[in-house]
Design goal:
By secondary structure, the chain is of the alpha+beta class. The protein has one domain: OB fold (Dihydrolipoamide Acetyltransferase, E2P) (Beta Barrel), CATH 2.40.50.180. The chain contains three helices and eleven strands, in the order αβββββαββββββα. A six-stranded mixed beta sheet has the order 8-1-2-11-10-9, with no helix packed on it. The N and C termini lie far apart (64 Å). The relative contact order is 0.22.
Length: 167
């Protein structure tokens, strides 16, 4: 292979994707690092009446009102006390209302990792009664499974639920 053909072949290989990893209980999750706007410690939120239980309320972040979602409650995991390790990941999300920021409460942030295309796996088909539309895929990172979230789909579903609750 010549140097030219080697660089051409490398150009066809997708670049590794950077993902912020975090934990919820014993499971590891990840979101695209380009979506992350801020990582901040747990701060009490302003409660909003008549919203689903996983929407904790809102925070005022530098003049912007940001809805805060508890992923433990959203994913039907055992509730946990908020500790000094509990964080809010503020993400930029594409929604039907345009680009918005949302906060996800997680147990703790782990690391930023590169995920290559060969380490990505499609979400398995778990049957029609199991909703996995917000799972973008799975990745093997350091011998553990990482669940990659599609935050646009997750938030779209939450916005639809909140709209229905308010109506």
């Amino acid at each position: 292979m010549t140097a030219r053909s080697t660089s051409h072949a490398a150009a066809n290989v997708p670049a590794p994707r950077q993902v912020l990893t975090f934990s919820l209980g014993d499971e590891n999750y990840g979101v695209d690092i380009l979506r992350v706007k801020e990582i901040r410690g747990w701060t009490p939120v302003t409660k909003i009446p008549k919203v689903p239980p996983h929407i904790l309320g809102v925070l005022n972040l530098r003049g912007s009102i940001v809805p805060i979602i508890d992923l433990r409650v959203r994913f039907n995991l055992a509730e946990a006390q908020f500790t000094p390790l509990t964080v809010i990941i503020v993400l930029s999300v594409n929604s039907s209302a345009g680009q918005r920021e949302f906060g996800l409460v997680v147990d703790g942030v782990s690391d930023v990792v590169d995920i290559s295309a060969e380490n990505l796996q499609e979400t398995p088909n778990l049957g029609s009664r199991v909703s996995v539309e917000f799972v973008q895929g799975l990745a093997l990172v350091a011998n553990s499974m990482l669940i990659l979230l599609n935050v646009d789909e997750l938030i779209r579903h939450d916005m639809d639920s909140a709209r229905q609750s308010a109506a």
